[in-house]
Amino acid sequence: MTTEPLITLLIVDDHPVVRDGLRGMFESAPGFRALGEAASGPEAVTRAAELDPDVVLMDLRMPGGSGVAAIRELSRRGARAKVLVLTTYDTDSDTLPAIEAGATGYLLKDAPRDELCTAVRAAAEGRTVLSPAVASRLVQAVRTPAPGNEPLSAREREVLTLVARGTSNREIARELFISEATVKTHLTHLYTKLGAKDRAAAVAAAYDRGILG
Description:
Blueprint lengths: L6 E6 L3 H12 L4 E7 L2 H11 L3 E4 L8 H11 L4 E6 L4 H10 L3 E4 L4 H12 L4 E2 L1 H12 L10 H11 L4 H8 L3 H15 L4 H10 L5
Parallel strand pairs: 1-2, 1-3, 3-4, 4-5, 5-6
């Protein structure tokens, strides 16, 4: 009969009641051992260096220092521990930075006990674990072109070329046989796609990307 290896944890959360609940849960589950706790990002980095856990259960929004900054610092230091985010937030502003910083997984605090234990074991093995809501957001982020990456249409290129020549909106409308309102719509799309705020920035971005010249 084989037994699964013991997995050690560092629990990071600014709420004592949450830390106590997680510690009690893992101490009562076979194959897990909570080595310690931390209440902020900076403390998590220090404690991880001291305890060398297999997995760090990391909250994100903490008054004493964010979890994302801690994940980034642990990655920079080459820490052995895998970081599994456990939080109540699943917005793009939370999930994407955490994954980019080096988190192995991302779960929400409403995850069932068995799911959490399975996720911690998977994280310890280096496997990515994502809650369904977070996985859906990441897929959507990948499918949505970031500013500056979406290709321009043929008409937008025509408008951009005329803008680069210093042509006014009225003159562009006359030359392309479209209304000034349509020219402004094309410019709005250009600004979004090029990540620019005005005509000059759009032209500069286009030259930088090789669209012009």
